[in-house]
Design a protein that fits this description.
The chain is of the alpha/beta class. It folds into two domains: 63 residues; 141 residues, no CATH class. 35% of the residues lie in helices and 28% in strands. A five-stranded mixed beta barrel has the order 2-4-5-9-6. Helix 1 runs antiparallel to helix 4. The longest helix has 37 residues.
Length: 234
Amino acid sequence: MTVATFVLGFALLCSLGLWQLSRAAEKQARYAAFVARLEAPAVNVDDLDTADPAASHAWQRVRLRGHYRDLHVLLDNRVQAGRVGYDVLSPFVTEGGRTVLIDRGWIPLEGSRETVPDLVAPADPFTLSGFIGEPPVVGVELNAAAATAEWLAPRIVRVQRVEPAGIGELFGLETWPAVVYLDADAPGALAVDWPVPGDGSARHRAYAVQWFAMAAVLATIGIALAYRKRSTQT
């Protein structure tokens, strides 16, 4: 191997290490923004004017004044404490006229899959609190929610994946393009346990250490070979 090859390899490994460090910094910054949103005062969801609230306001704490619709979505194959069940999402109509899907939490699967859960949402107007997020993900990605829906009752539908627009089509509603995850003490909450993800930066720093270590090994080998070649020439 030539000196140029060692130099190029060393530079490549170092660049990969630096890239991993930059990814770690990006994730730390994103996580800090999420934490800041969670700790910030809640805003009224009707005051948010954005086409993609799940992306631009992820983890933003919000409040909603309005009422539930007596309609319910069961997101299939959700597991808590080793038990299979459903996430329950119900549309909530705000005073500003928005229909927002509220993830109310988890219920266990009782009996067979043909058993229809007894679901009730408070009917009176009140204020909810929670945070904005992407729709919950489970299983494989399917096309429209309407194409894979199973109606268990006139007001209860079971789906394999939540997509707000598709859910809106099922119920004949125009739904807001994000989900609000309900606080445990809010009206209508079920078994609520929303895990807060870590920043994920540690993995990238570990990768960076590996790339820099490989670069150091390559440099050591290159120096040793160059020294040996010079020794044989003298």
